[in-house]
Amino acid sequence: MLKVHIQTRSIEDNFAFLSRRTTARVMAVVKADAYGHGLEETARCLHQAGADRFGVGSVQEGARLRDCLDAPEIYSLLGPVSPEDYHLLARHRIIPFIHSREQLKALQEASCSFRGTIPVAIKLETGMNRLGFRGGDLHELLETWEKCRGLKLHMLASHLSLADSVQGRQEVLRQLKTFEDYCRTMQARGHEFEKSLANSAAILAHPETHLDCVRPGISLYGDNPFEHTPWASKGEGLAQAMHVRAPVLAVHHLEKGAGVSYGLCFTAPRDMRIAVIGCGYADNYSRGLSNRGWMLYQGRRMPVLGRVCMQLSVVDASHAGDIAPGCEVYVLGGEGRQLLSAREMAGWLDSISYEIFCSLGKNPRTYSRAG
């Protein structure tokens, strides 16, 4: 019953906002179905706004994007995972991020089946401790790379772990230095390539990390990484693109002392008017919002009462004016100062805005340039 609406104008404006803050090339990150906003629709919108580089997650996602948009450059940030991925990326002109010698060797073998060269981005480990070649691997990496044929070194990249933390400045600079040291090691062997390190937060707060190519992700969709911090002003102007509504199914009175929903874990402290809303955890509206979340009706917030059920939730509608069955409430987004941001909802759940977008975005979506 949830309806997800994406305002594409907000995505376009966010792209322009971020692009104005750097002289580097911009790779628009649309991985994981564009963070729940819809891969194809979001990429088309960004392409019209001037984006000519896209970062997806899997190679299969890159092939989907290539089928709908002949963008100049598509990067798979996860790189090849299955044997089929190596041939898929060559056929669809996808630039893979490579993090292991095994991937490199398999890619070189796959390149023998295709004419021309395959551009490659090498992922370096500088502090996240996830994927990437470490400093001690560089000599072996160089030896392996220089034996490869059919491959072209296009980019070296790494990822920042604390760019979105006001207290993380020194770690950002340490990772930058480590990354630059690794790049110099490669350059000393005569290799030329682009350098990419900055994510959304680094674009806003750490200009020395921009280098040749920045990779905005979450902020394309309107999330301010510094919301509710002393650096909040750095992201002012970003606009949330995802707005999620749910129907009002019933409105009735609740007497003082009566309970609500399974477990009766909310008891009315006074006579109240409540509204039953058509959304629940089956719609990816988290059960963790029980007695913690808020919904929005005509600019007024209403707290969630009791447990969120599979397809139903209950809110306090005592001050919600003319709310009635058939009306709709916002469970995310909305208008005005009371807008429900993904970052705020994430705070109620001890989660992150990324998860909010990716989860709620699995519901049916509609698109428009305006609201």
TrEMBL record:
GO terms for molecular function: alanine racemase activity; pyridoxal phosphate binding. Substrate binds at residues 130, 310. The modification N6-(pyridoxal phosphate)lysine is found at residue 31. It comes from the Bacteria. Keywords: Isomerase, Pyridoxal phosphate. Its cofactor is pyridoxal 5'-phosphate. Residues 241-368 form the Alanine racemase C-terminal domain. Belongs to the alanine racemase family. Catalyzes the interconversion of L-alanine and D-alanine. May also act on other amino acids. HAMAP family: Ala_racemase (MF_01201). This is Alanine racemase.
